[in-house]
Write a structure and sequence with these properties.
The complex is a heterodimer of chains A (59) and B (410).
Chain A: H1 8-25, H2 30-58
Helix pairs in contact in A: 1-2
Chain B: E1 16-17, H1 36-44, H2 48-61, H3 64-75, E2 87-88, H4 99-112, H5 121-137, H6 213-233, H7 241-258, H8 268-285, E3 296-299, E4 309-314, E5 317-320, E6 331-347, E7 352-365, E8 373-385, E9 393-409
Parallel strand pairs in B: 1-2, 3-5, 4-6, 5-6, 6-9, 7-9
Antiparallel strand pairs in B: 7-8
Helix pairs in contact in B: 1-2, 5-6, 6-7, 7-8
Classes of the chains: A mainly alpha (59), B alpha/beta (410).
Chain lengths: 59, 410
Amino acid sequence: MVDHPFDPVSFVLGLMAVASGLIVLAGGNLVEQARILLPLGLIAFGIAVLVRLGGDRAG
Amino acid sequence: MMGPMNDAPPSPPGDRTRPGDGRLVREPDDSMVSGVCSGLADWLGLDVRLVRVLAAILVLITPWTLLAYLVASFAIPERRPDEPRVRAERVTGLGDAHPALLVGAVIVAVLLFDDTWFLHPFPAAVALVAVGIWLLTRDRPPSDRHPNAGEDSGTTVASGPSPTDAPSGTGRSVEPPPPGSGWSPGATEWPTEQMPLAPEQPPLEPFEPRSVLGRVGLALLLVGGGLVWLLDSVDLIDVSARTAMAAGLLGIGVVLIVATWRGRAAGLIPIGFLLAGLLVLDEAVDVPLDAGLGDRTYTIDTVGELREDYDLLAGDMVVDLTAAPLSRTRTTEVDANLGVGDLEVRVPEDARVTVDATVRAGDLDWPGPGDTSEDGTSIDRSITLAGEPGGPRLHLDLSVGFGTLEVVRG
């Protein structure tokens, strides 16, 4: 495996997957949590894409 | 919709990869519809006719194939005009086959031979573990190496031709020098004044070797999932499908976070979405994920055949109670839950029936005068169907996630 610059898309999707997995394992309900999880995820994903685009242009 | 099928030019010898190691694209030069089958055949090292025949058989078996084809047409990019067509080495044995091919074969088997021995948890779980171990242990393919990679440095610096060596790493023989070039057979060095200038070569792109992180993550997912399934099937542990999928999603998340700084694992992203979608579906439809797929018809003729619960994840289900020996002194309870599809419950003409019906999205129909149907989302209705005096009494608790729920007389 090779080190590479910070990949915000992997980071955000990874965090969302970890959060979703933990919610279900803790007995929670994804549909109920989606009201918070989805908007937060969308915002974070959008920011991540913008950060990566900025990084690509700078690089 | 059908395009002409051209004879695609043969790919050059260097443009072959191991099955599943190249880039999956739709093949525009050999397409019947949108080139999905042709691209899959190139990618998996199969004869395109075989892939098309299998696709046609699957279409006949289940319309889901058409939906999958449609999704693939949008999701898989078309080969660019300037991109060479790359065909994987032809698969000659099971050992050469890509895991996607094996998984596809299992899906076909599920559709063709539902409820046979090899679909029982034990062999299926062992197969998952085996595919995972195979992914972990198989050799890295030569295509992982950069085309300009040298034997030891990883890159080759452009230089003038050497009279003694073939170009490093290419395995090609050196062309004889043109007449008048100053080179004489047997010489070991160019005369200084006649040494040809190195041709202009484009700068090499930085070489980033393919990451094994995604493949290792997928392999661990398969091995872990298979082991849990295996232990659950022999009653050593008790893990629900929901818990196992949540753990898998958690693992994918961890691998993706690692891939934020080291390696790449983009291939796990669609698997993560799939698991998250299944978990949401599980919450939405009130049906266990292991409730089964396909069409089911239950015709109840004896007391022994009557069950309290009828569950199906996806498909059409008919529960026929018209000839069932129902009690006339107490109320018989029957639950039927369907995730996606059409559920039809037939009740006797003389029975007094109370129904608690839930439909997440779709239609609800029941017998009776007036408007006896409802459609839309979040349908939740209690219905009473009057019976004959002294007739059997029946209480139905019915739910459909997405589809049609119909209660009919006789």
